[in-house]
Write a structure and sequence with these properties.
Strand content: 5-15%
Oligomer: single chain
Number of strands: 3
Radius of gyration: 14 Å
Strand order of the largest sheet: 2-1-3
Order of helices and strands: EEHEHH
Shape: globular
Length: 78
């Protein structure tokens, strides 16, 4: 499964892919057109997903997400 970094975390359990996620975000209709979303950039990583994955846990998702998208130098930090 792919995990995408936009400014929000997207777990692609339906395998929409980057273009499908972009399309869904940009085509969402908010009441009174209060928000208009445009995806400027995205990056993704492959993960071996299961229900116990740290990204699926309230206590560990943020740290796991930050490590997943850290630069190679940042990944070496304790």
């Amino acid at each position: 499964m792919r995990v995408y970094r936009l400014e929000v975390m997207v777990i692609d359990s339906d395998a929409l892919g980057e273009s499908g996620i972009k399309q869904e975000l940009e085509n969402v209709s908010f009441p009174n057109d209060c928000l208009r979303l445009r995806l400027v950039s995205a990056e993704s990583r492959e993960v071996d997903w299961n229900d116990n994955h740290p990204l699926n846990m309230c206590t560990s998702w943020r740290g796991t997400f930050l490590k997943l998208f850290a630069s190679p130098d940042e990944r070496k930090l304790p």
